[in-house]
Every structure is written in structure tokens, then in C-alpha cells.
Amino acid sequence: MPLTRSCRTPNHRRRACHRDDPVTPDPSPDRMGRAAIRRAIAVLTFLAPVVLAPSAQAGPWALGKGRFYTKLSFQHLRSTELAQPDGTLFDIPTFRRTEASVYGQVGLSDRIDLYTNVPLLRSADLDDQPDELGPETGFGDLQIGLQAQFARRGRWVFAVRGTLQFPTGDETRADGLLPTGSGAWEAEGLFGAGLSFARGKGYGYLEVGHQHRGSGLRDTFLYNLQVGWNVGPRVTLAWNLRGVEPWNQTPGAGAAGSFVGVGDRTTYGITGPTAILKLAKHWGLQLDYDRQFHAKNLAKGPTFRGGISFAR
To answer: Is residue 30 included in any domain, yes or no?
Structure first.
């Protein structure tokens, strides 16, 4: 059975694909030979899915049957601006939001993955004087989902995924101004397309989809874009663009105002860099920095995120 081409993903694998009928060799400079595949394995073993809010999981590449990935993440936002539901910005006392979560993903088959995001801690505090809004801390909204990689065309990979969000947080904290969750059942479905290029050193993907929100909250359009480059056997750098845009900006029946970005008509675009460092055979460190633009109904400011991952 002749070797025809390589099956490539920017995550964990570079494995050979076979077919019964021989094909004409591809003269493209991006075509990877066996030696290039082996080099790419060392570079990309720890390029696991990057966690992109609001979704728990990102990227159309499947882990593979029996493989798993988990990450403990911590993030912190500091803001002195509040974007109202109509987009108007005004100054506020220093607002801080801190979150800790565990993400897990397992390959049920070579094409289907199960994933979950467990928000262990969500804490928010506004330095108002007098201190009428004290710190609010609690469990966030649990997410669980499935992703199916349904097609592969050369260097392209295509997948769909669906996520269900449970209202396990508390939307009533500080009269709804500092909630730990939306208080609504939510679901989202996305289509994703990914591409690896430059003999596996570079990759990119785009996801677009719909988020359904219950309890009278407005449904939204979601998009995630990431482009990355493996600069060495232990370091991957990437740039992210993601956002949430309600289909309808008219006020809904749900609560409107919120500092934490889970209320009705929440809108934002977020962009910033990611660095992934391979620490050891199965361990990795991920660092992110991002800023919002086109923000509505949330506190606007820079967000720092760090995570320790384990994959095998």
C-alpha cells in the first residue's frame, strides 16, 4: 500500500495516510516528506487547543482516539471603563475580575472529541466608595460539548462542534451587577476550517457560528480566528481575534447591565497574542494577553491569562 501524503494537524500528530490507489507526487513546496513529518512531531506535540472565550474549545483538529488534553487556567482583568449596552463608555472605580477554570478534552474516536470547561472560581470586585459592591465570588457556568471533524482536503481540515452551557453560576450577585453566571441555559454551534502551511510550521483556523441564549437574552453571532507559527521545537506564537455580536440590539427581557460580560446584548471584539511553551514531555505553559474593542455591556480593559497543560 503506497504512501501518498501526510495527515497533518497543528495539534498533536503527524501521521502517514495511505490509500489503495497510487497518486501523482505533489510538487508543492508545502508538501511534507517523512523526515519533515518527524521534525514537525517534535515541534507541535504540545500545541493543544487554545481556550477562547466565550467557548471552551477552539480549533477544528481532532485529538485522536484515546488522546486527552487538560489545562488549569487563571485569568485576571483590570478595568477603569464600563461600556454600557448602547456602547457609551464612562469612567468607573477600578474593577477587577479573576477566574480559575479547568478545561478537559478527550478523543472518543479519530474524528470525534468530547470536551468540558469547569469554572472553578469567578470573582469580581469594584473599588467603589463607600464600598456598596463588595467582592462577589462563586462557581461559574459549566460547559460541555462535542466536536466532529467531518472532512480533510489536503492541508485543510473541517469540523463542527456544539456546546451546552448549564446555568450553574449565580446571576443575582450584587443585584445582577457582579454575577458569576448568566442565569440561563445556553447552547452554541460552530463551523470551523483549519489550514496548516509552511511544512507544518504555520497554521490558522476560523470558526463562525450561532449562540442561543435562554431567559430572554439575545442570541449572538460568534467568531474565532487564530494564526500561529512554531518558532522552535519548544515555542509556538499565535495571534487571536474573537468576538460576540448580538443578532438584534433591541433590549430583551433579561437583565441589561453587568460589569462581567454575561448580560443581555453583551458585545465585544478581542484581539491579542498567545505564547505556548513546551516545558517537558507532556507538560506545557500557555500565556495570553488581549484587549477588547467594539465593547458593549461589560467592563473594558486588558486581560492576562496563564495556564498549565498536560497532554498525551
So the answer is: no
SS3 27: coil
Domain annotation covers residue 27: no
Amino acid of residue 23: V
CA distances for 20 relative to 3, 17, 23, 217, angstroms: 9, 11, 9, 52
pTM: 0.79
Confirm whether 163 is domain-assigned: yes
Structural domain for 187, as ranges: 51-311
Euclidean distance between CA atoms 29 and 31, whole angstroms: 5
Q: Is the dihedral of CA 290, 191, 118, 46 positive or negative?
A: negative
Residue 174 has what DSSP assignment?
G
Chain segment 177-208, per-residue pLDDT in tens:
888 998 899 999 999 999 999 988 999 999 99
What total number of domains does the chain contain? 1
Q: How many CA atoms lie within 13 A of 174 on its CB side?
A: 22
CATH number at residue 151: 2.40.160.40
Q: Does any domain span residue 10?
A: no
Cell numbers that stand for 210 in this block: 450561532
| Cell 508538501, residue located | 31
